[in-house]
Amino acid sequence: MDATESSKLSDGINAPMWMFWRRRRYVLVFLAFFGFFNVYSLRVNLSVAIVAMTENRTVQYPNGTIGYEQEFDWDSTTKGYILSSFFYGYIFTQLIGGYISNALGGNYVFGVGVGVTAGLTLLTPLAAHAGFGWLIAVRATEGFFEGVTFPCIHAIWSNWAPPSERSRMATIAFSGVFTGTVASMLLSGVLADTLGWEWVFYILGAFGCLWFVAWMLIVKKSPESDPYITTKEKEFILATLQRSADGGEKVQHPWRGILTSKAVWALIVSSFSENWGFYTLLTQLPTFLRDTMHFELQAAGFLSALPYLVMGLLLSVAGYLADLCQIRRWLTTTQVRRYFNCGAFLAQTVFMLVGAYILRPAPTLTCITIAVGCGAFAWCGFAVNHLDLSPKSAGVLMGISNTFSTVAGILTPIVSGQLTASGSENEWRTVFYIAAGIYLIGCVTYWFGVSGELQPWSIEAREREREKQRQDGGQGYANEGLVMEQKA
């Protein structure tokens, strides 16, 4: 059932959509929003904290002289490896996350992934004082557990999201990524300046642990297993997804079809491109603003958060517009994915180039903010496209595309660290030019390869074909019997 057809059905709940607590699927969205809030607040905190950990501090020695010391004497290359270490573990659990979410339930795996990461965040100060090797090990382990989160959420959407609400539900939840980024950058700068950098990890880690308890108690694998969902809402979701309440068969993913699909590879390239630019700014923007644009730590943290605040606000708007274009039949699903994604990439390319060329505090930050904000529309393309191609394989598809995206997360802090050894303006221009070029590659590739339709190799398409053959066979037997009766 497509988005237009599913929009004609009703969930039977007499309440406006903003009263999310009246609909169990939007209670899930609300908690998923804070889940992704934690996913990125726990990932980003080190980008700001590391500035405080390595800055020169004024120290008065016992003999009365004044000097400067760093608590951690790490050069830009070492910091690049530390910032990228999260992705050393993250890359290994992308496919695993998509696979086990189908077997165990995406809700359980998502909750454990975020909960363990929160617990390890509380240990980060201890690891840092033990040595940067221990810090890298803890961050890599955090990445290992957090790597399951994006593949798992697509397994959850495949059970809970009606096609007419798919973009909206996913983008509301994904906006937690940018809200978490904003909050983490703002809080990290303030906490590091007032209480000390250690409290960045204590407070954000504790919040993640509290969320874990709420998620595990409230969220269920599917509407069928939720004891608090109304009968009408459950029937509405199952009808729009064309699923029966006794579903739960073992999923056999069509690996050959997936790996030879042009639409899948276009999705992979698009995801890599967006994440290269995203992680470049996520890990390097605080350092760029502090060392090259000469902002104070708190100001650098606040200004680093600004682009993600804009993106978080635009993401829900973009998701609503994407669904509206489909429901009103203004655009097909393929056109929505293509125009939203590629239009955003083209704008990001232009503004990154302009910002890099000017390289002055106000205009450059404005260009970066617009570029990151435009990414909200790209997320209505590559970030939900997996569900269009094959809902039952969406978790695995997300795992595949996010594996390649993680390569971007590993490489860009290292590449940026190597390129900006002295922190000169020309070095930073090179970093931004590279990001712009990769955006453009993603734009061209996705434009020609994207599809918003159920793929012939998908599990759902094969099931429909088998059902059609069964019905045709049954009709054939019926016709044959009628002919024999007439002859008799």
UniProtKB/TrEMBL annotation:
Domain of life: Eukaryota
Catalytic reaction equation(s): N-acetyl-L-aspartyl-L-glutamate(out) = N-acetyl-L-aspartyl-L-glutamate(in); 2 nitrate(out) + H(+)(out) = 2 nitrate(in) + H(+)(in); L-aspartate(out) = L-aspartate(in); D-glucuronate(out) + H(+)(out) = D-glucuronate(in) + H(+)(in)
Subcellular compartments: Basolateral cell membrane; Cytoplasmic vesicle, Secretory vesicle membrane; Cytoplasmic vesicle, Secretory vesicle, Synaptic vesicle membrane; Lysosome membrane
Coiled-coil stretches: none
Annotated function: Receptor for CM101, a polysaccharide produced by group B Streptococcus with antipathoangiogenic properties.
Record keyword NAD present: no
A GO biological-process term: carboxylic acid transport
Protein's UniProt name: Sialin
Pfam families for the chain: MFS_1
Species in which this protein is naturally found: Anopheles gambiae
Membrane topology: Multi-pass membrane protein
GO cellular component: basolateral plasma membrane; lysosomal membrane; membrane; synaptic vesicle membrane
InterPro entries linked: MFS (IPR011701), MFS_dom (IPR020846), MFS_Na/Anion_cotransporter (IPR050382), MFS_trans_sf (IPR036259)
Keywords linked to the UniProt accession: Cell membrane, Cytoplasmic vesicle, Glycoprotein, Lysosome, Membrane, Symport, Synapse, Transmembrane, Transmembrane helix, Transport
Main location: membrane
One function term, GO molecular function aspect: transmembrane transporter activity
Chain ranges of the Major facilitator superfamily (MFS) profile domain: 27-454
